[in-house]
Write a structure and sequence with these properties.
This is UDP-galactopyranose mutase. A seven-stranded mixed β-sheet has the order 8-7-16-17-18-15-19, with helices on both faces. The chain has a five-stranded parallel β-sheet with strand order 10-2-1-14-20, covered by helices on one side. Strands 5-9-6 form a three-stranded antiparallel β-sheet, with helices on one face. The protein contains twelve helices and 20 strands. Helix 1 (about 10-20) packs parallel to helix 8 (about 190-205), helix 1 runs parallel beside helix 12 (about 405-420) and helix 2 (about 60-70) crosses helix 12 (about 405-420). The chain is about 30% helix and about 25% strand. The protein has about 425 residues and is of the alpha/beta class.
């Protein structure tokens, strides 16, 4: 068949790889100028690096298997990284169960209760049972109010803002249940996965075209071809189409009515700085900023996991956030935004000054974080659409997860198996 795939992220390229291997004529249309979607990369001193911090867990079998299939397994390493929490003006170690049981802002009884509630979430296998419960209410009851106030609520507010009280416990369960203490990273970056998938598609006669943002999709005759038009005016026909862009983009392209399920999902945008510094900024790989008044959610010093020698001696630091698309942190000029972040970076490291930053990069994405409320399940559309020739495989459909390379890969393979074979 002639198969069109909309989007060249993890889902789209994995599906294209599998479908091309099956002998189909595959064309991938990607709106951005690069492949990889939210795992797209830039370069730091000649080495590809993800625009938004990425790693995988030992539980991410779909991604690990794909890496092996592409011949990249020798480059995958799991690292024992460090985590900290910034609370009430102080940095606290939070890397191991021992650190958690010694966490000073909590009393011993609170620490034990926090540990027990986390162990419970690790033990529960079906997180969807928490779908209709609110995360803050659950942690206040089971982890205790003090642990909720110090640990969980600042993280939820930092990520979801005013929507934090509405977030489903299924979302928080997924964040705890599948995570492992060691983090996996590919020597040379995950960009290699996407270039290997691209090469695989091309070697089998497929095409991947960037700069082709979806404008319209229709199937006038249910038994006929699917018509796809991109914003540059190009038009193509396919026997089948797999759409991997966020629901709002698909809804616009199909002209779905306002009451259609496609319009129900809510998304936050993402903003992320990559700072190339001449020295270390924080003493951890990952630092949760547990202060709701802070303008960013987390600081990730990538070179606490990967040697600085990979990046010309630069210390690579991410400063990331999830915000509404009309928020000042999404709309402000990046140079000004970095200036406004400086006082907060100085709270994390009093010696820090912007002169440490030798170069910086800024990325923003409009649809990066679904807002997973108890009503979220009702906003998840089926893979089948109103057009017989069109299948939808998008971020919202990996519930109770909300994003992640491995879940995108797994969904791509499941959808190809179910709807294209």
């Amino acid at each position: 068949m002639r198969i069109g795939i909309i989007g060249a992220g993890a889902t789209g390229l994995t599906a294209a790889h599998d479908l091309a291997a099956d002998g189909h004529e595959v064309t991938v249309l990607e709106g951005a100028d690069e492949i990889g979607g939210l795992a797209g990369s830039l370069e730091v001193q000649g080495t590809p690096l993800e625009r938004y911090y990425h790693h995988i867990f030992a539980s991410d079998r779909a991604m690990i298997d794909l890496i092996g299939e592409l011949g990249l397994a020798p480059k995958l390493r799991f690292h024992a990284t460090t985590t900290g929490i910034y609370h009430d003006g102080v940095l606290h170690d939070f890397s191991t169960p021992r650190d958690m049981l010694a966490f000073p802002p909590l009393r011993l009884a609170d620490r034990v209760r926090f540990g027990a509630s986390s162990a419970l979430l690790k033990a529960v296998r079906d997180g969807e049972r928490f779908g209709d419960r609110r995360a803050l209410e659950w942690v206040q009851r089971w982890a205790g109010r003090r642990a909720a106030d110090v640990i969980w609520e600042p993280l939820l507010v930092g990520k979801f803002g005013a929507r934090a009280p509405e977030i489903s416990m299924a979302w928080l369960w997924a964040r705890v249940h599948f995570r492992t203490f060691k983090l996996g990273y590919l020597d040379g970056g995950f960009h290699q996965v996407y270039t290997a998938l691209l090469r695989s598609v091309q070697e089998r006669g497929g095409r991947v075209e960037t700069g082709r943002r979806l404008a319209h999709i229709a199937q006038p005759d249910p038994a006929g071809p699917v018509e796809v038009t991109t914003e540059d005016g190009a038009r193509a026909e396919f026997d089948r189409v797999l759409v991997t862009v966020p629901q709002p983009a698909f809804a616009r392209a199909t002209g779905a009515p306002e009451d259609d399920v496609l319009h129900r999902a809510e998304y936050l945008g993402a903003t992320c700085f990559v700072l190339e510094c001449d020295r270390s900024v924080i003493p951890y790989y990952w630092l949760n900023v547990n202060d709701p008044s802070a303008p960013f959610l987390a600081v990730v010093e990538h070179t606490r996991m990967v040697p600085t020698s990979e990046y010309g001696g630069r210390h690579v630091v991410y400063v990331g956030n999830y915000v509404p698309r009309d928020d000042w942190r999404f709309t402000t000029d990046p140079a000004e935004l970095l200036q406004r972040y400086e006082p907060w970076l100085q709270r994390l490291n009093p010696d820090f000054e912007l002169s440490w930053v030798q170069d910086w990069h800024f990325s923003r994405a409009g649809f990066a974080q679904p807002v997973v409320t108890p009503a979220y399940r009702e906003s998840i559309p089926p893979h089948e659409t109103s057009m017989p020739g069109v299948v939808l495989a998008t971020m919202s459909q990996i519930y109770p997860q909300d994003r992640g390379q491995s879940y995108a890969v797994a969904m791509a393979r499941r959808v190809v198996q179910q709807y294209f074979r």
